[in-house]
Amino acid sequence: GLGVLCHAMAALGAYRCIECNEEATELYRDYQRGVLRISICKSCQKPVDKYIEYDPVIILINAVLCKAQAYRHILFNTKINIHGKLCVFCLLCEAYLRWLQLQDSSQNTDPDDLIRYAKEWDFYRMFGIASLEQTSFFIGIFITLWWMTPEMLKRKSDFILLLKALLLSTYGKLLLIPAVIWEHDYTPLCLAFIKVFVLISNSQAIRVTLNLNRILPWFAVFFGLILENGVVCLFQKMGWDV
């Protein structure tokens, strides 16, 4: 169970202190008979990971508040393998929103035209465009970080860890669905807030994963946005509705 997982991760040196980001050999010590004691970090003298005693809902709330400690707990001290599934689901949400907007933008009431928009191809096309934009955004981030701090991304494992962190930090796109379902006059404003929240989460994920200051992650996110918007402009010049 949890003990086996913790021992396996400890053998790999995967633990990090959520306060100072220093490596740790264990999160807690088991004294048998249900007696557990949270390990203390040798560097900052604080609990290595206080969140192992917290309810998942509290951890989620702290993650939504973009607390670095919650991000370190999730990225380094837990074994979560939903990165790919979460990314695909978020892209489906974004594709669905674009597909609805594509229908709303049509003023033609011809039944044939409505049937054409109802075809699955339109939704798949929106999914493909959203995927390409997301990929270009990530590529822009990686290029910036590799250019500014090449020593941070020397190993393949560093790239994989950062990619997983970025994929997890896009969870804010899940809010697109309720924003569309409860549509009202303030929906465009809500969508703008969701976009900003996702960017903040991306920046915090970069900062926590690579242990950087606040400026460089935002610079990487900004360059990723430039590359993403460049892809959007390319699609628009090709005459595609995005």
From TrEMBL:
Per the record, membrane topology reads: Multi-pass membrane protein
GO cellular component, as recorded: cortical endoplasmic reticulum; endoplasmic reticulum membrane; Golgi apparatus
UniProtKB keywords: Endoplasmic reticulum, Lipid metabolism, Lipid transport, Membrane, Transmembrane, Transmembrane helix, Transport
Where found? Endoplasmic reticulum membrane
* Alphabetized Pfam families for the sequence: Arv1 (PF04161)
Q: Which residues cross the membrane?
A: 126-147, 159-182, 215-235
Top-rank taxon, per record: Eukaryota
Q: Name one GO biological process term.
A: regulation of plasma membrane sterol distribution
Q: By its UniProt entry, which InterPro entries does this protein fall under? A: Arv1
The protein's job, in short, is:
Mediator of sterol homeostasis involved in sterol uptake, trafficking and distribution into membranes.
Q: Which family does it belong to?
A: Belongs to the ARV1 family.
What is the name listed in the Swiss-Prot or TrEMBL entry for this protein?
Protein ARV
The encoding gene: Arv1
